[in-house]
Every structure is written in structure tokens, then in C-alpha cells.
Amino acid sequence: MGTAVKFLTGIVLGAFLILAGCSTEIDPPNSVSSLPDQPETPRGLTAAIGDGTIALSWTVSTPSAISRYKIYYTDVEDDEPMLLDSSTTTTYTAAGLTNGRAYYFSVAAVTTGHIEGVKSSALQATPGIFSININQGNEFTNSRSVSVGLTAPSGVSLVQLSESNTFVGAHWENYAATKSFQLSDGDGVKHVYAQFQINGGGLSTGSITDDIILDRVAAIDSVTENTGGTVLGPGDEVIFTVYTKETGGEASATIEGIGTLELQESTAGVYSYTYIVPIATELTDAEITGHFTDAAGNDAPDVKATTLLNATYPPEAVTASGFAESSLEILLEWTKSNAVDFSSYRIFRSMSAGVTEHSTLVTTITNQSSLTYRDTALADTTEYFYRVYVYDANGNFTPSNELSLTTMQNQPPRAVSIAVTLNSEALSSTVSWERSNETDFQAYHVIRSENVITGYNSDDVISIVNEQGTTSITDYVPSASNYYYQVYVVDKQGLMTGSNVISIVIQ
Fold it and tell me: Taking the C-alpha atoms of 151, 155, 161 and 167 in order, what is their torsion angle to the nearest 10 degrees?
């Protein structure tokens, strides 16, 4: 005997007690009685299979003659079935069964006169789990054609799929673990229902369904950055944002001169990235292009931000040095700038410490390889302060170290010797002198007087010669007389030294 449901023990015991309590009186042998009519046998027994359940149904021709139906079962095919339960309708659901175990059910009708008829033929049914998944459980699809994975117990022969739980218009197909299915048109949530048919005609029970979101279009609403085009420098923060209406996608932004940045979803459908501008970043009106691929794999058309990105950084400082070459000149030198957008070197000078770009601009040098400058026309024994500023094409600048340099003390120029000769031409003479070699030479001042010369008198200057190599002049005197001549060498700082004095009579 196979395994029996435990509660059937009570039913059998009750039947035994009823028989024990019946009358033992026996009709006389010659007594004549007619046997009652047997009820019809239920037919068309079918089973609907579920998770741990089997729903039975059957039919009879004259249900009004039937008071109830007895349901029998066994889990061994050839064993005598045991009473499981009874029902007053032509349906019954057995629950708490073991999935994967075969059960054999039969049904007998009982008349209103308590006469039990012949059991129906036994129906084999095996409870089990049914399930489906669309595209292996993915949340989205960008194609109407999907793959439906099916799970069913043994004995399933047919399946039908539909987007309606009534299966209107669906067709039975041979069961397979994977079936192809065409979703209805129109993006949105799609529900797919499955119904299974077991060998012998039984059906699956319950709602066996899965859903997926059909999404075939992706779009970007806008792409932004939070600087509004303001020129940025190293360490500044920029937030790039791509706005969409879809969650779970992948967004990025490509910035000219920087590259592509992967954005993260900050709020539903909004993807952003906070970027810190690194040192040595130069951007001029750089375009920002947003990209987006939604969770279904659709690529949105690229969208550009309405603002442009600008970033710059000051050039590196150069190192300056220098020395006084004379009482009026200072030579400045500096290291070469490596700025890729070099514009100029600008030398600023001040009479006190603290040189800035607002101090006196000495010169502007646009040749990046020019690394020296001689500052002239300075005062002697005077302290000067310098900085060399490097400017780039964006107007950024960086000052060098500050220099403090003092010009040398000025010394009077060395005197030259002169000679005066009479010319054959009346009332003229030639005044000549040796060449001055002073580095700060300014001019020769030639003076003439009818009186003995005792010092420089500007009223007696007859000629100023600025060319250091010119060493003579012709002097036309106003009248015959005795004249005195002297030549002064004057330097750029105004110091002067007179030559010897020569007297000559011009007739």
C-alpha cells in the first residue's frame, strides 16, 4: 500500500464505527426487495496543475440526482485509492501536495439516497511550479521581438503566450524551454502571460506572467555646465549635467581639450559630474557635447551645451638677475618662459621695493627667446627695483623675483687735447681735438671767447657735436681779434671736463 493522507485514517475509522452500530437483523430468506439504482460514474475528469495544488473538475448527466462526490487518491499507480475528501460541486482543489510527485485521482458520485456509484477512471497529475521570464529577466528591451524562457514540470506538452490574461487570439504551440514572442507596438510596460497544457488535457493554474518595458527611443533634454562661460583657473569646479527623462541609462560629456567624462545619475533622469580644473589647462570657447544611452540600449542624438567652456592659468615665473654696467646702465637677464601661449616679457621698474604691474613699464619684449635688456639713462649711485613679468595670450601674467640694483658712481669724462690752426680763408680757423672714448659720451661742447677762459660758460658755446667720432669744426669769427678756444667733453649724466685752452689771433 502506498503512502496515504493521514486524515483518511479518521474517515476509515468512522465508517467502521457506523457499520458496528447497524442492526444485526437479517431479512428472512424468502423476503423479496429491489436493489436501488446506482448513480452514474463521473466522466471527463481533468486536472489543472499548480504549485503544490491540483484542481480537479468533472461532469455528470444528472447533477440533481447527486448529493455529493467522493474524491479518492493514491500516489502509487496500482494501489487501491484512498478517500481524500468530498465535494458538493463538480470541482475540487487538492492543496499541500509535493511538487514533482505523481498523484492518481478518481471521483465517485453519491446519490441523495446515499448510494455511492462506481469510481471514475484514475487521472494522473503531478503538481509543479510554472514560471516565465522575458529576455532573461531584463527590465528593458528596445525590440518588439523578445525571448520568453519557460519553466514547467514534466508532462507539459503545449503552451500558449499572450499579452492578455484571457488568451484571446492565442494559439497552442509545442512546449519548449525558450519561445520567441512579438510584443505589441507602442513603448511602455508589456505583460506576457503563459498557460501550459499537460499530457492528458490538464492546464496550469494561476497567473503565470512576466513584464518588460519596451523602450525604442532615447532623448537628451539639455546639456549644461554651471560656469556660464566664466574663465576658469586651476582648482575651479565645474558641474557638467545631462538632463533626460529616463533612469538607469549611461550619460557622458565630451569637452574639447579635456576629453570624455562619464556622468553619474544624481536624481531620476539627471546625470552629472563635478570636474576640478587641473593645473596647465587652457580652454578657449570649448564646446561641450552630451551623450546618452538609455537602459534599453537606445542611443540618443548628441546635444551640445548652449555655453562654452573657458579655462586658463598664469604662466610660470621666470628667474631674473642683473648688474650695473655703469653709472647710467643696468643689464637685466632672465630665464626663458616655457608658456605655450606666450605673449610677452614686460619689465617694470620702481624707485622703491614692491614692484607691481602698475609700476613704470620699462619695455615690452615679444620675442620669447630674448632674455636680456639694458636699461639706460639712469641716475648714478641710485638704487632701482625690477621685476620681469611673463604675459600669456589670455592676459594672465606672473612676476619674477624682485631685483634691487644700484648704478655705479659717475666719474667726470677724461679731457681731450685740442689744436687750432688758421685757415687761408679770411676770419676762419679749424678747431680739432682727439676723440673721446667715454662709454657714457654725450657731446663735445666747443667754446670760444675773446677773453681768457676760466671755466665753462654756455654763452661761449659755438658748437655742440653729438657724434663721438667727429673731432673738428671750422669756426668763422665775426671780426679780427685774439680768440681763446676750449673743448668740453660732456657725458650723459651732465658731467663735463674741459680741454687745454688755446689762444690764436685771427686777422
Answer: -130
H/E stretch holding 20 reads helix 8-20
The letter for the amino acid at 208 is: I
* pLDDT beyond 80 at 23: no
Distance from C-alpha of 365 to C-alpha of 373, rounded to nearest angstrom = 9
Q: Are strands 270-276 and 303-304 parallel, antiparallel or unpaired?
A: unpaired
- Nearest 5 degrees, angle CA 301-CA 303-CA 308? 160
Give the residue carrying C-alpha cell 653729438.
466
pLDDT cut 70: percent of the chain above it: 93
- Assess contact for 447 and 465: CB atoms under 8 A: no
CA atoms lying within 13 Å on the CB side of residue 297: 7
pTM for the whole thing?
0.57
Grid cell 639706460 is found at 376
Indicate the burial class of 242 (C-beta count within 10 angstroms; 0-12, 13-18, 19 or more): buried
Q: 44 in helix, strand or coil?
A: strand
pLDDT > 80? residue 4: no
The 10s digit of each residue's pLDDT in 392-420 is: 988 899 999 999 999 999 999 999 999 99
Report yes or no: 146 and 135 within 8 Å, Cβ to Cβ.
yes
Per the DSSP assignment, residues forming a β-bridge with 147 are 180
C-alpha span between 479 and 60 (Å, rounded)? 167
The cell numbers describing 135, all together, are 529576455
Query: To which residue does cell 465535494 refer?
Result: 87
Task: Quote the strand ranges of 199-287, DSSP E.
Answer: 203-204, 208-214, 222-225, 231-232, 237-243, 250-255, 259-267, 270-276, 283-286
Q: Return the C-alpha cell found at 162.
A: 499572450
Q: How far is CA 421 from CA 427, 433, 447, 498, in A?
A: 12, 12, 15, 19
Look at residues 217, 219, 226 and name the one whose alpha carbon lies nearest to residue 272.
226
Residue 65 has phi, psi (to 5 degrees) of -85, -5
CA dihedral over 164, 165, 171, 176, signed as positive or negative = positive
